[in-house]
Amino acid sequence: MAPEPLAMMQDDPIAPDARRLVAASPSGEPGPFASFIVCTHNRVHALAASIRSIETASRAHAMVESELVVVDNGSTDGTAEELAGIAARTMMSITLLTEPRPGLAAARNTGMARARGRILIFIDDDCEVDSNYLRDLERHYSGGDEQVIRGGRVELGNPADLPFTVKRSKVAARLTRDVHPGGFVLGCNMTMHRDIAARIGPFDERFGAGAPLKAAEDTDYLVRAFELGIPVEYVPDMVVHHHHGRRHRAAIEELHRNYSLGNGGLCLKHLLRAPWLLKHFGWTVRSAWGEAFGRSRFDPELQLSHWPIVSMNLLGALRFAWLAAANAEPRIERRRVEQPEPKLR
């Protein structure tokens, strides 16, 4: 049986109840101003440094109440023991969670469901926040413009790491259809009001690290927000320092391919509602052919080509089609079985 078109283009294969998990503070009581949500998998040493930076930022701006939610996504490197020790020592409100289902998107959904803060802050486990982070965050969200997704600057944490997965622009900007959403706001430094998260819904668990499409769970979230009329804003403060640890070109090339795989799936998923993404694929194809005639590569500094983007975009689209079809078939069969039989007169 062929999958229905609308089933193939669904937002996410998660139970509908998940959309209501961020609608209000889980306890029903007023929560803190901000929730830092950190998801981790086998990065115990980087995680400890990340948490210390969040504690420092919270002490530096103590008048802003904040909490920390950490989701362990199946770590096997002593993360659980390290987190137990941190929880026993810290003066900060901390919630420790486990999410056995693999994937960053699944872990983020678990953290989002338990966060109590008015503002949700997604920080990667290899990132350290600047001591002025909460001051900057409060200034942006207390100015009355809360109905946005807002991301801040991402600097390289260690100069020995290659300059990738960073955003150093010092100019504020908002997403438009002429800008590819990938990397416009990085998922390692992404914030939003909990009402915005409730409106958009959970992260699509087919995307992101540890999932079949390997990346772009954050970019998918930006596209869904944009198509709902929710502005996506980059600000040059709210700084985090990314200690990604990749110092060899092979590691960057692998990450480059993974990002392109996810973006290809993203393009097919939003084909009907955000066809403007296709023009970015077209521009990439044109740029790839241009390389043959001496034009610049995608990243001249790291010598990254446009061609892997093209090939992995196509592979990502095929993989998304397979995932969507595999998920749609049981749903269609289940709906057919659940239809009541006609009554005999």
From TrEMBL:
Q: Mind telling me which InterPro entries this protein's record contains?
A: Glyco_trans_2-like (IPR001173), Glycosyltransf_2 (IPR050834), Nucleotide-diphossugar_trans (IPR029044)
| Domain called Glycosyltransferase 2-like: residue spans | 35-155
Q: Which UniProt keywords apply?
A: Plasmid, Transferase
Gene3D superfamilies noted in UniProt: Spore Coat Polysaccharide Biosynthesis Protein SpsA, Chain A
Q: Name one Pfam family in it.
A: Glycos_transf_2
The record, for CDD domains, names: Glyco_tranf_GTA_type (cd00761)
Annotated GO molecular function terms are: transferase activity
Q: What is this protein called?
A: Glycosyl transferase family 2
Q: Which organism is it from?
A: Sinorhizobium medicae (strain WSM419) (Ensifer medicae)
